[in-house]
Amino acid sequence: MPHSRIKAVIPAAGLGTRFLPATKAMPKEMLPVVDKPAIQYVVEEAVQAGIEDILIILGRNKNNISNHFDSVPELESRLTDKGDLDRLRKVQESSDLADIHFVRQGEPKGLGHAVLRARAHVGESTFAVLLGDDLMDERDPLLTTMIAENERTGLTVIALMEVDPDQIHMYGAAAVEATDDPDVVKVTGLVEKPSKEDAPSNYAVIGRYVLTPDVFDILERTEPGKGGEIQLTDALQELAVTTGVLGVIFRGRRYDTGDRVDYIKAIVQLAADREDLGPDLRPWLKDFASRL
């Protein structure tokens, strides 16, 4: 069912330095995961949750992203003439997904600043933020659950996932209190990338948020935090102690494409599960693993 009142925001202005030199001229969000760029999976997730209006926050040299979601008449005409209707459908799919808009961040001043750039487009409505580094398996719905929780309570909702305590320094960490629902917690505090010793829990904030519009006023006055950037976590911390923030605990399959090793794992896992690739790939993987 379309959620006409909710728009999605996808920040895609990062420099992608962990993937250099591949990202010297290509946005990291356009790196292929099997046969689609990573950002297309994220857009598809928003669409599957019923969102029809999507804003992508771009940085410099990110025109490839807007080009990908635009039509390509010359290519489509050539595929039509060749009768290659299957590839034609795949090419047209990305430009027909949703009503997609673009705005530039200018300087990479952090996730909080990127979200703030969406204010003119979002207005005074609740909106979803989806980070392009995190791919959620379409078989394990998350965003629809978060939207439903926001509709039930009117509160900001963030996605949480239990991680190994030794990895919590890579994430924002949440202090939580249980609710009557084992998959929903009350967030009482947030810390950006704490040490294992200072982390309030091993519940990590992963890249899905359903935010109420009052976050914009907080971001306007949020000073740069860790890394000299405006951190969304700092704004969420203020919301947690004022109006309230809920966390939906995700127990499904998540693929981190922001790390080189995890990016390779994501490709292998998704390809192995596909009906068109899995039957040939899985036996080869077993044979390859046996020789290691």
UniProtKB/TrEMBL annotation:
Q: Which reaction does it catalyse?
A: alpha-D-glucose 1-phosphate + UTP + H(+) = UDP-alpha-D-glucose + diphosphate
Keywords from the named record: Nucleotidyltransferase, Transferase
Q: What are its E.C. numbers?
A: 2.7.7.9
Which part of the chain is the Nucleotidyl transferase domain? 7-270
* CDD domains in the cross-refs: UGPase_prokaryotic
Specify the domain of life of the species encoding this protein: Bacteria
Please list the GO biological process terms of this entry: UDP-alpha-D-glucose metabolic process
Molecular function (GO) terms for this protein are: UTP:glucose-1-phosphate uridylyltransferase activity
Q: Say if the entry is tagged with keyword Transferase.
A: yes
Recorded hits in InterPro entries, A to Z, give: GalU_uridylyltTrfase_bac/arc (IPR005771), NTP_transferase_dom (IPR005835), Nucleotide-diphossugar_trans (IPR029044)
Q: What enzyme category does the UniProt record give?
A: transferase
Cross-referenced Pfam families: NTP_transferase (PF00483)
Q: Which PANTHER family match?
A: UTP--GLUCOSE-1-PHOSPHATE URIDYLYLTRANSFERASE (PTHR43197:SF1)
Per the record, the similarity remark reads:
Belongs to the UDPGP type 2 family.
Protein name listed in UniProt: UTP--glucose-1-phosphate uridylyltransferase
**Gene that this polypeptide is encoded by:** galU
